[in-house]
Structure formats: structure tokens, C-alpha cells
Specification:
about 140 residues; mainly alpha; three-stranded antiparallel β-sheet; 3 strands; globular
């Protein structure tokens, strides 16, 4: 599974991608260029990117705390999942689609997987599956 770029108000937004980001492909998610940005925590470029992402998320979702996975890319740059905390986007998506928060949350819950074997790793939400289900393409 490879992450995809979503930015509309009626869709869940996934982790940013650093894979193949260029002027002709600003969103990344290029499977041929999988990899991290290699930017360190003191990098001005990284700080500026994270600041821009935080600002965009605040404009779209209000002032709720923003989970780190929505402002930093994964090591591969292709992660299709977000944390359950990053699904705080439910109210924005519900409003844009004319749905209730409970209806959207039920879809998120359907495509949330717990840790492997119940204790290895963390729970994840598959953004692509959630967005396809919201579009009525998955049941």
C-alpha cells in the first residue's frame, strides 16, 4: 500500500511525503523515489515545511492539537496510514460531506487496525480506504 495525496475538505489527509518531491511533483508519493528527506531537526527547510503544514491543518481543522504524523513524513515517504489521533479531521470531513460526525467516525473505525497480535506496533487508520469508503467505492 502506498499513500496518496488528498487535500480536499471532504477527504482525510494523510502523512506528508518526501518521496520524489519536486517542482513538477510537489506532493511526493513517488514509489520510484521512496525515502526520507534526510532533513534534521535543526534544518530551516524542515522547520518551514512543518510550520506550513501546521498552519494549513489549523486553517482546515481549527485549533485542536495536531498529531505529529500529519506534519512529518515517514521514513519511506509512502506511508498510507495515519494514527487514530490524526483522524481528528472527522468534523471537517463530516461538514464538507453533509454527514454527521458519528457517520464519518464509523467509517474511520471500520478501517482502523489495531496493533499486530494486539500488542506489536500501534493502531493505524488507512487513509485511502477511508476516503474510498466515503466516496461509496468500498462497503
Amino acid at each position: 500500500m502506498i499513500g496518496q495525496y488528498f487535500d480536499g475538505p471532504g477527504y482525510f489527509w494523510g502523512r506528508p511525503s518526501a518521496a520524489g518531491v519536486s517542482t513538477t511533483n510537489p506532493s511526493g508519493y513517488d514509489a520510484m523515489s521512496s525515502g526520507a528527506s534526510n532533513l534534521g531537526p535543526t534544518s530551516k527547510v524542515l522547520i518551514d515545511e512543518v510550520t506550513q503544514r501546521v498552519d494549513a491543518l489549523r486553517r482546515a481543522n481549527g485549533d485542536a492539537p495536531i498529531p505529529v504524523d500529519l506534519v512529518t513524513s515517514s521514513a519511506s515517504g509512502l506511508d498510507p496510514d495515519i494514527s487514530p489521533a490524526a483522524a481528528y479531521q472527522v468534523p471537517r470531513v463530516a461538514k464538507a460531506r453533509g454527514m454527521t460526525d458519528a457517520q464519518v467516525q464509523a467509517i474511520v473505525d471500520r478501517y482502523t487496525q489495531g496493533p499486530m497480535l494486539g500488542f506489536l506496533g500501534a493502531a493505524t487508520v488507512n487513509v485511502l480506504e477511508v476516503n474510498l469508503a466515503l466516496d461509496g467505492l468500498l462497503r
